[in-house]
Amino acid sequence: MKKLVVITGASSGIGEAIAKRFSEAGYPLLLIARRIEKLTALNLPNCLCEQVDVTNKEAFVRAIAKAEAEFGPVECLINNAGVMLLGQIETQDNNEWQKMFDVNVVALLNGMQAVLEPMKNRNGGTIINISSIAGRKTFPNHAAYCGTKFAVSAITENVREEVADFGVRVTNISPGSVETELLNHTTSSEIKAGYEDWKQTMGGALLADDIARSALFIQEQPQQVCIRELLIAATRQQP
């Protein structure tokens, strides 16, 4: 059996696809999400499913400790949990900004903190953070969301530099538009309709499995090979 992989936001979309790919490749898994029934419905072997709000650091750490007691130390953490609430700053509910920063940034930091010191002590391990093309450039109605994803991209690269000498890999996957539930979080029907129209101009967005295959490729490189960043989008996506 391979070593333990932790995946947050694993109940749907990219997280679910990653869980399936890594399970097929023989990794034991800790799957974390709020919707436990969706995790258990995956029915994956060598898999611990935990209902955790990733903004709750203590619950997050307890789940990791429980999985390590069963499967051994975390080999790979995939910070996938995220929320996208699109809107314009002058009209958007500021609670939506707070939620995005709590889930997309603070929870990601909590996860990294939970595994980094042991990884450094073992001189190995991998962290894959799922950012976004919105962490590289801006888009209409994305100001606060872009802020969170620019933060993820910066944090990932900064930490990579700090832990590289310990043999720990930290990488950033920045997908373009992907067919997931993410857009459903947005409250403006007008913005959602415009986003759907945009996806049609590119002949359809990426599939979640496109990102899952990329994550598995990154993980299965030799430990001395770190793919620092992967920017992936539909061929016809503009911008």
Automatic annotation (TrEMBL):
It holds the Pfam family adh_short. Transmembrane segments: none annotated. GO terms for molecular function: oxidoreductase activity, acting on the CH-OH group of donors, NAD or NADP as acceptor. The keyword Oxidoreductase applies. Coiled coil: none annotated. PROSITE patterns: ADH_SHORT. Belongs to the short-chain dehydrogenases/reductases (SDR) family. PANTHER family: DEHYDROGENASE/REDUCTASE SDR FAMILY MEMBER 11, DEHYDROGENASE_REDUCTASE SDR FAMILY MEMBER 11. This is Oxidoreductase. It comes from Pseudoalteromonas rubra. The lineage of its organism: Bacteria, Pseudomonadati, Pseudomonadota, Gammaproteobacteria, Alteromonadales.
